[in-house]
Amino acid sequence: MLAAAFLILFIGGGARFAIGLTLRPMVDELNWERSQIGMAVAVFQAVSAATMYLAGSLADRLSLRLIIGGGLLLSGAAIGLMSVVAAPWQAVAVYGVLFAVGNGAASIAPVGVMVTRAFPARTGLANAAAASGMTVGQLVIIAVLSALLVTIGWRSVFLSLGVAFLLLLGPVLAAMPRTGAGKLRSSEQPPNGSSIAEAARTRQFWLLIAVYAVCGFGDFFVTTHVVAFAQDKGISALLAGNLLALMGLTGLLGVMVAGYWSDRTGPLWPTALSFAARVGAFALVIFDQSPLSVAIFALVFGSTFLVTAPLTVIFVRDAFGIRNLGALTGLITMVHHVCGGIGAYIGARIFDATNAYQIAFVIMLATSAMAMLLTLALRRPPAAPRAAAR
User: Fold this and answer.
1) Lowest-confidence range among 62-76, 83-97, 267-281?
2) Which of 133, 138, 331, 371 has a beta carbon 3.0–4.6 Å from 248's, enabling a disulfide?
3) Alpha helices in the chain (DSSP H)
4) What CATH number does the domain containing 227 carry?
5) In 3D, which of 5, 243, 245, 14 has the Cα closest to residue 111?
6) For 242-275, b where at least 16 C-beta lie within 10 A, e where not — what string?
7) Which residues contact 58 (CB under 8 A, 6 or more apart)?
8) Domain for residue 183, yes or no?
9) Residue 297: CB partners within 8 Å, gap ≥ 6?
10) Cα-atom radius of gyration of the chain, to the nearest Å?
């Protein structure tokens, strides 16, 4: 099950980052504006976020083989179709809608539910191991695609990803459990746990919503624009693409440390520290945009990128129990991704208006500082829901 979880996120994670790798060559060849790609990313974030919420809710009730398998199949078909787009509306329809639905169905929300129920004693570390698939996918897949991009072109990047999804669909489904799909047996159903309405009446819920909204806002601004920004500052296309891949390596370190740490102290301190690191990274790149500083910025930010992903289910489990773990996790993840789309689009609009990302970096520094303070404001929830989860 853990191998299946890793592979699902490995494939989806690498594919999701490809749009940042191909942004500049696409706009150059097709004579588009960056904000037109930014719009496709924004729609992708909104649609995939809504799908994550739906997939998380269905994960509490239905077979994960059906949910995740269907998502992988649709993702492969849709990302392959990106190789033939010729107009901005086509990118919005194919990437922003079709690929978003597939990627949302085969995402961290249902995968997190599956892993959390399978590993109740080491939940943080197990979810970190699964979520590391996204960082390893970013490292391996983006490195391969960067070489492919400079030799064959951006269209081959999307076509290759489509083939990869379809080839790996069989092994992933074979590794997943064929029974209950990670659902609890009726005898194991926790006696209590919050509904969405009950959770929404708590301070903890709205603080989590705010933290994950700001997190997504910065996450997808950076991953969408960092390659183009690096090229703007004189870094070659191949090195800029490999920089995005190396962000996956630092992300692997960050997510595993956060998972291990959260099993001992809870998820609050790993999350707060990741936002503190972002404040420092954005401050650096605001004042110094030399190639070295750009590389340091990207690698430091990369170490924080997926820290909150495996911790979502921990925050939810500790505060609200696991009766509606999928629905609540999916809802928070939905907010994260919707705000991610807004961040990607706003960054593109700022660049088109000013021919620079400076204003965007200032905004990201301020919001990261705010997220750090909001994280520290999260009170430790009562132990009752967690005990029920066990």
Assistant:
1) 62-76
2) 138
3) 2-30, 34-59, 64-81, 88-91, 100-105, 108-118, 123-151, 154-175, 196-199, 203-232, 237-265, 268-287, 291-304, 312-320, 325-354, 358-376, 384-389
4) 1.20.1250.20
5) 5
6) bbbbbbbbbbbebbbbbbebbbeebbbebbbbbb
7) 67, 110, 326
8) no
9) 281, 282, 284, 285
10) 19
State pLDDT tens for residues 147-201. Answer: 778 788 888 889 989 998 988 888 888 877 665 444 444 334 444 677 888 889 9
Q: Which domain holds residue 366?
A: 2-177+192-389
CA atoms within 13 A on the CB side of 381: 24
Burial label for 191, CB within 10 Å (0-12, 13-18, 19+), is exposed
Using the predicted structure, report yes or no on whether residue 125 has a pLDDT greater than 70: yes
74/157: higher pLDDT: 74
| pLDDT 10s digits, 1-10 | 888 888 888 8
Entry pTM: 0.72
Asked whether 351 and 37 are in contact (CB, 8 A), the reply is: no
Sole residue written with tokens 């709205």: 206
